Amino acid sequence: MRDFTKKLRVLLVDDNANHLRGIKELLSIETSYSIVGATRSANLAINLIKKYHPDIVLMDVNMPEKDGLQTIQAISKLGLSTKVIILSGYDDSDLIYRAMKLGAKGYVLKTMASSKLIDAIEAVAEGKVYLPSILATRFFDYFQSSAREEARVSAEENLLSSLTSRENEVLELLTQGINYKSIASQLIISDTTVKTHVNNIFQKLQVNDRTNAVLYALTHGFKVNNNKKIEHLTTV
Amino acid sequence: MRDFTKKLRVLLVDDNANHLRGIKELLSIETSYSIVGATRSANLAINLIKKYHPDIVLMDVNMPEKDGLQTIQAISKLGLSTKVIILSGYDDSDLIYRAMKLGAKGYVLKTMASSKLIDAIEAVAEGKVYLPSILATRFFDYFQSSAREEARVSAEENLLSSLTSRENEVLELLTQGINYKSIASQLIISDTTVKTHVNNIFQKLQVNDRTNAVLYALTHGFKVNNNKKIEHLTTV
DNA sequence: GATTTTATCAATCAAGAGATTTAGATAAGT
DNA sequence: ACTTATCTAAATCTCTTGATTGATAAAATC
User: pTM of the full predicted structure?
Assistant: First the structure.
C-alpha cells in the first residue's frame, strides 16, 4: 500500500489545453494529489520528470511533436520509479500492446468515467497495473495472436525436421558462425566429413550456402536439439 | 454478453481427485453450468474436448503426464471456441506469462475465494480475459522486463550505428542471403565495390565473414534503414 | 537376412569470398 | 583552403566454400 500521509506527485502531459485543464481540475478536487506540472510538450515533460521525479505521469499518447510511445520509452530509460499512465482516445490493440510493452503501468480511455482515472492512479501508485477489462482483453487478443504467428512459423511443416541428429549438431554450429575447420575440431571429425554434412543440410533445407542455411534455421525456430536416446531417460 | 438461456458447458481437468470433486460440487450449486466431463488425464481431456466442444475448460497446470502448458497449446491448435482457464497453486510470473501466451483466457489461483472462480468463468464466457489484479501485475512485470531485454540488446552501444547508409543497404541485402554479384546488380554498382563495402562492414562489426555479419545484424536489432536525406522530406 | 539410413572419410574442381592496397570523385565540415 | 568521410572501382592473391563422386562400416528397420 502507498503511504497516504504523503501526497502523490503527478505530472500531466497532454497537447490539448482543454483536456489538460480538465484533468487538473479533476485531480485538484482530491486532496491526496499534488500536481507538479502540466505541459503540452513531450520534450518538456522529459525535462520536468528529470527535475521533479513525479510518482505518476498521466500522458496523452496522441501528441504530434514527439510521439507518445517514444516518450514512454524515454521515461523508462531514465530509470526512475516514475510510473506512466496512458490516456488515449482509442482502444487500439496495437497501441495498448506497444504502450504496455514499453513500460506503461496503466491505460485509461478518455471516454471512461473520470472516477476510473482516480482508480488507475491509485492502483498504479500501489505498484499494480491498471488495465480496464475491455482493454485487457484487447491486449491479450493481440498478444496471443502474435504469439500464435511465432508458433505457426516454427511449428509449420518445416524442413528442419528432416535433419539427422548429427546434421542438427552441425547446423547448430553453423548458426554460431563457425567455419568448417572449427566445426571439425569441435565434433572431432575430419573437415571433409563436415563438408558432407553441410552439403546434406543444404540439400534438405533447399539452400545453396551457409548464410541461407543459418537464415532458414533462425526463421524456422531452430533450437539446439537434445535428442538423447529415449532408453536412456529415467522416468520419475 | 453470453446467452443465459443456455447452460455453459464446462470441462474439468485436474490430476488431483479431491480438487476435481471440490470444483465439481462448487459448480453444481450454480444452475447455469453443465459439467460435460471431469478427468485427471490431460490426454483424455483433449479427446473429451474434441468430442464435446465445451465452452470452458478449467485446467490445473501442474500435471505430471502431459504438462499443462503443452495441453493449452494442444487445445488452441484444435481451433475450437473452447476457452481455457488455468487453475494453479503458484503465482509464478513465468508460468502466467507462458500460459497466457499459449492462449489461456483466464488464470485463477487455488488459494483464491471460490467465488473468484465463478467470476472467471463468467468473464471468460463473455469473451473477456480474467486475470486477477495481482497476477496481471506479475504478468506485466515479466512482459515488460523481457521487452526491456530486447530493447537493451538492440539499443545498446552497438557497432551497427557506425555503418554508413550505403553499408546499411549492403548489410540489408547480406541479411537476405544474397551474394556479391546479385547485390552488385541490385545496387547497380560493380561487384568489386560491393566487396569493398562488405569488407568495411566486417571491419566495423568486427567479424570475419558474412555469416557472422548477418548474425550480428540479426541479434542487434538491425532494421532496414529509411535514411532518406532530410532535405527531401516534406513535413505535413 | 536384406535393405536403408546414417556417419564417416577422401579427392578433386570450380567458384565464391575475403584481405589488402591503391586511387579518383564528391560532399561536407572546419 | 584544407581536411575528412564516403562511395566508387580495380587488381592481386589467398583461403574458404560448395559440388560431385565414390567408398566403407555401423546401426536401424523391415
Answer: 0.74
Question: Please, where are the H alpha helices in chain A?
Answer: 17-29, 42-52, 68-77, 93-101, 114-125, 133-155, 165-174, 180-187, 191-205, 210-219
Residue A174 CA distance to nucleotide D21 C1' (Å) = 25
Quote the pLDDT of residue A11. Answer: 92
pLDDT of residue B2: 60
**Distance separating alpha carbons of residues B55 and B69, to the nearest angstrom:** 19
**CB proximity B148–strand C (7 Å threshold):** no
To the nearest whole angstrom, how far is the Cα of B146 from the nearest Cα of chain A? Answer: 9
User: Are A161 and A222 in contact, with CB atoms under 8 Å apart?
Assistant: no
Within an 8 Å CB–CB cutoff, is residue B131 touching chain A? yes
Q: How many CB atoms are located within 10 Å of the residue A151 CB?
A: 18
* Cβ of residue B211 lies below 7 Å from strand C: yes
Collapsing DSSP to helix, strand or coil, A30 comes out as coil
Give the cell for residue A201: 543440410
Query: In Å, how far is A144's CA from the nearest CA of chain B?
Result: 5
* Strand residues in B26-133 grouped as ranges (E): 33-39, 56-60, 83-88, 106-109
Q: Is the dihedral of CA A183, A184, A189, A194 positive or negative?
A: positive
The per-residue pLDDT for range B83-113, each reduced to its tens digit, is 999 998 888 888 899 999 989 999 999 888 8
Query: Are A144 and B103 an interchain contact pair (Cβ–Cβ within 8 Å)?
Result: yes
- Sequence-distant (6+) residues with CB within 8 A of A220 are A153, A154, A156, A158, A159, A160
